[in-house]
Write a structure and sequence with these properties.
Blueprint: E1 4-7, E2 10-13, E3 18-24, E4 33-39, E5 46-51, E6 57-59, E7 67-72, E8 77-82, E9 91-98, E10 112-113, E11 117-122
Parallel strand pairs: 2-11
Antiparallel strand pairs: 1-3, 3-8, 4-5, 4-9, 5-6, 7-8, 9-10, 9-11
């Protein structure tokens, strides 16, 4: 079992920054592929970024150059640094673990999920 707990969300203005954290349980955290997803009201959950065990990263086009995903295996934590936030970044942000190495961007490819943290960006 893997438990994931997100934190760091909040209400900010356009152009501001936030850093989200995803704290995970599990002795083999360093082997997990961890993704961040977000879901806006009335919309489907969408991929934001992923960090592999090798620390290689993948980003959605909509956040490239603004968001940075990183991991600290000593703390079992993955971070999402979000800069130059836009109103369209508003949503509930979820972290998820893929323990099978599917290397996907589809939510169905991730087998553990956190409860989410709300990010609201006002214009």
């Amino acid at each position: 079992q893997v438990q994931l707990v997100e934190s760091g969300g909040g209400l900010v203005q356009a152009g501001d920054s936030l850093r989200l954290s995803c704290a995970a349980s599990g002795r083999t955290f360093s082997r997990y592929y961890i993704g961040w997803f977000r879901q806006a009201p009335g919309k489907e959950r969408e991929f934001v970024a992923r960090v592999n065990p090798s620390t290689a990263t993948v980003y959605a086009d909509s956040v490239k150059g603004r968001f940075t995903i990183s991991r600290d295996n000593t703390k079992n934590t993955v971070y999402l640094q979000m800069n130059s936030l836009k109103p369209e970044d508003t949503g509930v942000y979820f972290c998820a673990a893929d323990t099978f190495g599917r290397l996907g961007t589809n939510p169905s490819e991730y087998n553990y999920w956190g409860q989410g943290t709300q990010v609201t960006v006002s214009s």
